[in-house]
Amino acid sequence: MILDVRKFGDPVLRKQAFPLRKLTKEMLALADNMLETMYAAEGVGLAAPQVGIPVRLVVIDVGDGPMVLFNPRVVRSAGEAVAREGCLSLPGVTGEVVRADTVTVEALSRNGQGVRRIEGDGLLARALQHEIDHLDGVLFIDKATDIVEEQADE
């Protein structure tokens, strides 16, 4: 099921998301619906607050297959890279954002048994940081410079 993506100005985007205490069928279904929504919107990541659910859940696919991460957190970062970012919650807006070039993220595995460790660089590192920021109520425009808004065709 495709979900409505919340847009800039919606207060849920600025709230701290709650950690999941256990994985339920509802949370697994939410993750599947978030993946479907992300693909339909042609995004590479989506955080639960972006669909109005303030829990620590993100989905990402940078071309290597889908990742579903429950309670993700960055445990290591290194380097620095600048790139232009956009966001499904701010359609038509992009900006240059400085982020770590490589990150290690720990998250609860989809089956709820143990911690999954993901190491990423480049676009994956950027997507992980961008989506985890959403869980803390941080939007890319809070960190961006050279913000550009596309003009709508008339």
Topology pattern, helix = H, strand = E = HEEEEEEEHE
Please report the first level of CATH classification, the CATH class: Alpha Beta
Can you count the helices? 2
The strand count comes to 8
- Compute the average pLDDT: 95
User: Distance between the terminal alpha carbons, to the nearest Å?
Assistant: 32 Å
Backbone shape: globular
Describe the secondary-structure layout:
Elements: H1 25-40, E1 45-47, E2 57-60, E3 67-78, E4 81-85, E5 93-99, E6 102-108, E7 115-121, H2 122-135, E8 145-149
Antiparallel strand pairs: 1-2, 2-3, 3-6, 4-5, 5-8, 6-7
Q: Overview of this structure, please?
A:
The chain is 19% helix and 32% strand. It is an alpha+beta fold and 154 residues long. The chain has one domain (11-149): Peptide deformylase (Peptide Deformylase, Alpha-Beta Complex), CATH 3.90.45. The strands form 2 sheets. It has a 5-stranded antiparallel sheet with strand order 1-2-3-6-7. The longest helix has 16 residues, at 25-40. The termini are far apart. The model has no long low-confidence stretch (mean pLDDT 95).
